[in-house]
Structure formats: C-alpha cells, structure tokens
Amino acid sequence: MNAERETIVRMTRDAVDKVRVADIHTHLFAPAFGPLLLSGIDELLTYHYLVAEALRWLPMPAAAFGRLDKRTRADLVWRTLFLERSPVSEACRGVVTALASLGLDPGPRDLAEYRDFFARRNPEEHVARVFDLAGVEYAVMTNDPFDGPERAVWLAGPKPDPRFRAALRLDALLGAWPSAVFRLQAWGFDVEPGLGGRTMAEVRRFVAEWLDRTGALYAAASLPPTFAFPGPSSRARLLAEAVLPAAEAAGVPFALMIGVERGVNPDLGPAGDGLGRADVAAVQNLCRAFPSNRFLVTMLSRENQHELCVAARKFANLMPFGCWWFLNGPGLVREITALRTDLLGLSYIPQHSDARVLEQILYKWKHARAAVGDVLAEKYADLAAAGWRVTEDDIRRDAAALFAGNFESFVAARPAK
Ligand code: HDL
Ligand code: ZN
Description:
This protein is α/β, with parallel strands linked by helices. Helix content is 53%, strand content 9%.
C-alpha cells in the first residue's frame, strides 16, 4: 500500500474510532425504568442471539432450556459456546469484546470473576462508564405504550435522561389491531374493530398523545416480509389514515423495519423470529404517497439491500439505516456499507446497535466502527487515487454525519423533554 493510501486509512480509522455516536435503535431503557434496563454478564450470555446458537448444540428442547433459571441458562451458554468450542460468532465475540472493553481479562475464561465484577459495580457509574467507553452520546429506546410495566413508568413521568431518547413503537397497534382495540377502548379511545366511526381520529389522538408524552424522536413499527402498501389490511389503513398523519403533525419520521417473520419457531421465544425478502415497492409507494412524511427504513433481508438503496435514490424522504439483526456481522456490514456508499454517497445511516443489554453497546459499536471504518478508508483512498485531495477535516466531517448528523438532521432533532 503506498504512503498516501496508508495515511488515508489511518486518518479514516482514527476519525471513525473517535466519532460520537447517536445509537438510533436499541432496546435499552433509562435507569428510571428500573429492571427494564438489562445489564451484566448473565444478561449478556442469555441474549437471544446466543440462546439460538447454544440450542444448536444442547441436547435439550428449547422449552426445557427456557424453564431454567437465568444463571443456569448463562452457565450452559458459557460452557457450550465459550468453553467447549471457540466463540467465533459475532454475538459470542461480542461478549469477549465487551468484557475486554471493561478491563476484564477474557483469557482465564473465569465466569465467576466476571460475575463478581458486575456484582460489585455501582449502577449509575457503570451506565456512565459504558456509554463513555462505547463513545455513544445517546441511545434511542424502543418504547411500547402497550407494554404494561413500561406504560406505568411513562404515566408516572420518568426523570428525563439525555442519554436515553424515546421512539414510539407501534407494532401492537399496526400488527395486532383486534387486541389493540380492546386496550384502546379501556383507555378511553372511541375505536371500533372494523375501523369505522371515530376510529381513525381516535388513533391519531392516541399516537399524538404518546409522541408528546415520550418526546419520541420518531415512531416505528416492524413489519413482515408480506408487508404491502397500499392495501385493504388494517395495518395499511391505520398507517395511511392515522399513524402517518399523526407523525407528520408531530413533525417526526416513521421508521419501517421490514422483513421479520415472527415466531418461525415459537419454542425459541424471542430467538424464534426469522426473516423473509420483502417488497420494496411498498416503501416506494409510501414515500410517493406521503411526500411530507419522512421514512427511516431498515430491511432484514440481504437481498433487499440493493433495491432499498435504489429506492432511496428516488426519494429524499427515505433514509436507509442500519445492518439490522441477522445482517449485523462484519462481512455483511462491509458489503452493505460499500453498496450504500457507492449508490448514496454519504446520505445513509450505517448502523444502529439494537442492543438489549447495556454492555452490548461496547461491542456493537467497536465492531461497527471497525467494519464501517474499513469501507470508508477504501472509498477515500479510491477518491484520492482519482485525484481528489482528501483531508482529515473532510473525513471527520463525513464520519460525524454518518454516525449522528444524518439522523439528527433527518429527525430535525426535537428538544429534549
Ligand atoms: O423488532 C426489533 O426491534 C428487533 O430488533 C427485535 O427486537 C430482535 O429480537 C432483535 O433484538 N434484533 O437485534
Ligand atoms: Zn430492535
């Protein structure tokens, strides 16, 4: 590699390693939400990604594994995936990265020592330290107004924490309307199963109320591979006549997370979801029909990534984001980031962590910075080889946009609650 190329690679990796991150989709919760914020080695080891991998080896049915207590489940995962064979999968390597980032030595493979570290930590100091080590300025939560424990915290008015911002998740409304009707009626909303009467106005009122209560930066829903728009489904009608008008009125984008096949193997619980290739035409139809709405879009199938990039070239109100879930491995992150950069320049959001356990942001962002940084380094080196003078200031400016700025300008950052 020539000297100029080496310098560009070094500058790029340094800029990406240091850039502040807005983590735009996580399942983390602010400490005010109490036990909803998961943390510690036993939570890391019983993350559903690792459970799925361990169950491929364990001679027991998933249901039997699920009945064990958390510590026993963690012991089994540790033995199966870390002691009996090398932890080479992304989720396993992530646990190793997280331990090392915290100053623990993965070398001894001493689970008791790691447990002792987490038992002794001061929760508030630990949260601050993890965010600092990960270089994450804030994480956007996934906030479900239909979730009992979480709803109770919102109604009591949690103390705002600028490290944790809200996103209003509407799967229960858009994906399970028949059961949502009864909950909404119980909460005083005049809605009908057949969507008649004042239903759409009342759903708009419900969404507006929760966008305001949470200060959500965006509203969101995950959608199956069969998602179609327009269409006769309650999901399509609620989106068009209630949710998107409410999001536009509140000035927030809507995040479409498309391609998840829920409960492919129900016995595995949260680990039982799969994926399918979706129809990008639904995304294009939404962007065209709702030009005043903004759409954050991530798709779960590798085969949808190129189509989504081409669609984004057609609609400025479409912002592709993340290498979601089964796409979050170094190989696919590199492939998708190169594809996006080739087709969209810098007008995309490369990654979100999807972290469920606090310490996962340590590994998800360390690994993401490495993969995205490598691709950007190549792109800047190619640009220099074409004759452009690539400067360190340019690289830092561009990295800041990719890892936070693009999101914040797309969301037109709402004042913190
Ligand atoms: O629907 C989602 O937000 C997904 O991210 C699921 O929560 C999934 O279980 C997950 O955690 N993926 O990383
Ligand atoms: Zn998620």
